[in-house]
Amino acid sequence: MNRRRPRRLLRPTRRGERVSLRRAFRFALAGMVALGVSTVAVTPPARGTDVGGKTGSAEGTVKGPVRRVLMISVPTMEWADVQRYDIPALRGLLDRSAVAALSVRAVSRKTSAVDGYVTIGAGTRAAGSASGALAFEVGDVFEGQPASEEFARRTGVEPRPGELFNMGIVSLIAANEELHFDAEVGALGKVLRRHGVRRAVIANADHDEDAFTVEWDRSATLALVDDRGIVDAGRLDGLLRHDPAAPFATRLDVGEVVDAFAEVWDGGEEDERKVVLVEASDLARLDEFKNLALPPQRARLEAQAFERTDHLVEQLLQKVDARRDAVVVVAPYHSTGTVHLTVFGIRAPGLEPGLLTSGTTRRSGFLQITDVAPAILELLGISPPVTMEGTAVEVTSTDMTPRERVDLLVRWNEAALFRDAQVGVAARAVVFGNAMLWVLALLVLARGSDRGRRAASVAALGVPGFLAATYVAGLVHFAAVGASAYWVFLVVFAAAWAAACHLAGRRRVTGPAMLALGGLWLLLVVDVVTGARLQLNTVFGYTPTVAGRFAGVGNPTFAQIAVCAILIASLVRDWAKGGVGLAVAAGVLAVTAVVDGVPWFGADVGGVLSFVPAAAVTLIQLSGRKVDWRYVLGGMVAAVLLISVLGLVDAARSPEERTHLGRLVVEVGEAGWAPFETVLLRKLQANLSVLTRTVWTLMVPLVFGFAGWVFWRAPYRLRRVGEKVETWRSALVGVAVAAVLGFALNDSGIAVPGMMIGVVNAILVNLMLRTDGPDGGEILRGGDGRQIRTSGVDGG
Residue 433: is its pLDDT beyond 50? Predict the structure, then answer.
């Protein structure tokens, strides 16, 4: 008895339609090489994205060496404070400086004083501890005994008279050895000591917690301590004055601070090189106290603190020779309770005012806190050690006025804060929006309404439309308009996107889906190639406050561009059979790999390692061949080779132009595989930590739960998608590979497959509704021109 062979839910490409896989791969490789060569030819030599979002060359570099560097620390200060308060000396100094918005992100999202200073001193992200605030002079008493004796017991180093020492050096080194950042605590101080540069710190942010307890805060010493915990000179004691009107009734004695500065600044040999840090410690005390004051009193205290700080800056600048000395203004950490960008500026001989950029940000007007130490060393003509994650800085956009620069930096900070407030809401909207698509689809399918079926299929196209809207919204400063206007824009744009794709592509089953995916893919590709302007401060792009990246392709964007490319390639192959369809599909996948991976475009290492094997599997499926482990392994080898080539090309560029990939190659060449191992461990740790703390984790059970229920109750509905779109199985396999590898190789973890599943789910709902319905409906054309009769698509 012959048993009928069960039909497969999703059929692969029909037999007899297999084309030369070798030809397709040859086409893909040729496309990647051609695009890569062309981008090399047109890529400018220097990194940095100007205010228009385009990559531009640097217009100046920090000049060196100088004899002395004054570091003025202004804790928690942001660029809006320059506009808000009467600080003529500080404002004038910044007007004559090359400036940037400083991202003070260290290891964790919130940066304390100890975190900020120890990161400056390491030149690499580092974590602080409470003991890092304990610094003393020789002769001070700590816990009833001479502090220098206790320090010697802990370190084996006996401080000499005049030196400062930080009691927390041992615990800081131990804590950072357990992290996966390879931070060398005191690296800046160690390099300066080795080159004979004298270091001094003048700071004291202590305050009385109550009548019996003193809250020590001398963490500023961590910026210049060496690996032994020693600073050559400076002053911590005798700098404070009792003032009942000041926070904690304590403020700096400006006269004492200036005298201490003059002693170390002018002392010693005439040509002795020095770095002296002076902290405006009143701002640190203000940050600790402001939540204890009513708003009107808080405003008065802030104005007074900035007025005293400005007076201090005025007195310090009178002792600096602008023809020979450099002045660096840095706010090493943000305010308590608010993660924001802070102030950074450099005034140096021969340095033209403008916006600063670095190799770690590759975006004009932005620096990371890890760049501070390399900038100091560059001013002195010293090369930073390989252990420093930060890079030297350079100047761009020198044609702006000081006011324009400040206004721009203020707007960027506002945009970052606005984006950070909306990102969680946007993620939940995508996740629960996908769940609601299934609810809507099941309702209209149960009722058999043609009009409802059509409306639900259009609504599904709103998911890629919503994603596209979040990037386009980056063209508007919604921080000044408000969240309501922002969300109205997203909803209206997504609805218009869905309607336009439906109307333009309604004559083919896959037409609307193809247009919706193609539009999102093209938007992202063009944006990345032209400078990634729409990535910065958009909810699925990235933000400088998080400081994961400042340029190129972020993880959520990679997930979108990758899933769109795989689905587009599969749908194109369904439309155009034979070699043409496969060649176009290969071209789409090749362009995606190049744009995502090339250092001066996407610079996305984890993305390439995830996407290339997935693209190879997809292309093999589309050719009609069966995928086995050899093809998967070959795709992974190809991804590693591509990354290796891109890394070598990036490493061959100048240090200021290298991305994180080129810097990693250089570090591996100098220090072995330890830096590579550190990166992998850090990504794995971040990946696992995100798993239980993000709404994207819900995307998997929600989507698979609804799809499984439909498959159980009415499997023919999903089977029809595979019958009418014969390459759908190839698309699902390719996306599955990209999702699994994307989860494993990117530090956003579940967010990558979650985003991919969301896009696939929306397209599946659209195709399921457009291929559903009994015979007797409207006649449409399938991907290959075949006629499909259905009552549920475009009736009327």
Answer: yes
Cβ contact 597:607 at 8 Å: yes
Tell me which H or E stretch contains 190: helix 187-194
Amino acid at 527: D
Contact between residue 205 and residue 218 where contact means Cβ atoms under 8 Å apart: yes
Tokens representing 793 are: 């698509």
The answer to whether 596 and 611 have CB atoms below 8 angstroms apart is yes
Cα separation, 733 vs 248, in Å, equals: 64
Q: CB neighbours of 356 closer than 8 A, spacing ≥ 6?
A: 98, 99, 100, 344, 346, 364, 365, 367, 393, 394, 395, 396
Q: What is the pLDDT of residue 704?
A: 81
- 220: which 2 tokens? 């500023």
pLDDT mean over 567-574: 92
What pLDDT was estimated at residue 692? 64
Among 615, 632, 640, 635, which Cα is nearest to 562's?
615
How far, in Å, CA of 478 to CA of 460, rounded? 26
What are the φ and ψ backbone dihedral angles of 414, each rounded to 5 degrees? -60, -45
CA neighbor of 408 nearest in space, from 26, 100, 742, 774? 100
pLDDT score recorded for residue 760:
94
Both structure tokens of 444: 């209209």
- Are the C-beta atoms of residues 331 and 504 closer than 8 Å to each other? no
Q: Say which residue the tokens 């034979």 belong to.
A: 578
pLDDT tens figures, 189-236: 999 999 999 999 999 999 876 544 678 999 999 999 999 999 999 999
Q: What's the chain's Rg over C-alpha atoms? A: 30
Band of residue 773 on the pLDDT scale cut at 50, 70, 90: low
Residue that the structure tokens 């007797």 belong to: 776
Q: What is the pTM of this model?
A: 0.86
> How buried is 108 (Cβ within 10 angstroms: 0-12 exposed, 13-18 middle, 19+ buried)?
exposed
Q: DSSP letters of 466-503? A: HHHHHHHGGGS-TTTT-HHHHHHHHHHHHHHHHHHHHH
**73 three-state secondary structure:** strand
Report residue 1 as tokens. Answer: 């008895």
Instruction: For residue 102, list its beta bridge partners.
Output: 342, 367
pLDDT score for 745: 81
> Is the preceding peptide bond at 6 cis, omega within 30 degrees of 0?
no
**Token pair of 290 as six digits:** 């402001």
Pairing mode of beta strands 164-166, 135-137: antiparallel
What are the tokens at 268?
Answer: 């010693």
Task: Tell me what pLDDT residue 57 has.
Answer: 45
Q: What span, in angstroms and rounded, lies between the C-alpha atoms of 507 and 521? A: 22
Q: Which two tokens stand for residue 761?
A: 């789910």
Q: What are phi and psi of 198, to 5 degrees?
A: -75, 135
Mean pLDDT of the residues in the chain = 85
Query: Which contacts qualify for 336-339: CB closer than 8 Å, 24 or more apart?
Result: 336/76, 336/287, 336/288, 336/291, 337/291, 338/417, 339/109, 339/110, 339/111, 339/420, 339/545
Distance CA 3, CA 629 (A): 32
- How far apart CA 606 and CA 639 sit, in angstroms, is 10
- The percent helix, strand, coil of the chain (3-state, each to 5) is 55, 10, 35
**Cα dihedral sign, 341-347-352-353:** positive
Contact between 319 and 265 (Cβ < 8 Å):
yes
Q: Which residues contact 261 (CB under 8 A, 6 or more apart)?
A: 202, 276, 278, 316, 319
Q: Are 421 and 458 in contact (CB under 8 A)?
A: no
Please, which residues have CB within 8 angstroms of residue 309's CB and are 6 or more apart in sequence?
74, 87, 90, 280, 282, 283
C-alpha to C-alpha distance for 748 and 467, rounded to whole angstroms: 18
Say if residue 128's pLDDT is above 50: yes
pLDDT classification of 685: cutoffs 50, 70, 90:
low
Judge contact between 157 and 224, C-beta under 8 A. Answer: no
- Distance in angstroms (rounded) separating the CA atoms of residues 365 and 355: 5
